Amino acid sequence: MNPIEEFNEYRAKMNEKIMAADNKVIKRFFNLDTNAYASGELDVKSKEMIGLACSMVLRCDDCIKYHLGKCHEVGMKSSEVFEVFSIATLIGGSIVIPHLRRAVEYWEELENQ
């Protein structure tokens, strides 16, 4: 199984278990997250770029992978993704660089699938 399939399958499996617990607060939070990334005054592509940059600055590899997958789905070009990477690195500083390396590796996987 490739890293993209592995990530997506694990995420789906665990989200299913989390939702099965039927916790109102968790369900509302997940719903809020889903609705925040829906098209509105900002288009989905812009929102995913913001999500990717924030995830990199916050150093969440799972979030970075998720947003990279969404960026790929909405047709972002590598040059656009690297501009997001540059902004995130500028804002987050050198501590973002290890996450940048993994993000580049994951983007390459997405592009080569």
UniProtKB/TrEMBL annotation:
Gene3D superfamilies cross-referenced by the UniProt entry: AhpD-like (1.20.1290.10)
SUPFAM superfamilies associated with the record: AhpD-like (SSF69118)
Pfam families in UniProt: CMD
Keywords, sorted A to Z: Oxidoreductase, Peroxidase
GO molecular function, one term: peroxiredoxin activity
Annotated ranges, domain Carboxymuconolactone decarboxylase-like: 27-105
Protein name: Alkylhydroperoxidase AhpD family core domain-containing protein
The organism of origin for this protein: Algoriphagus faecimaris
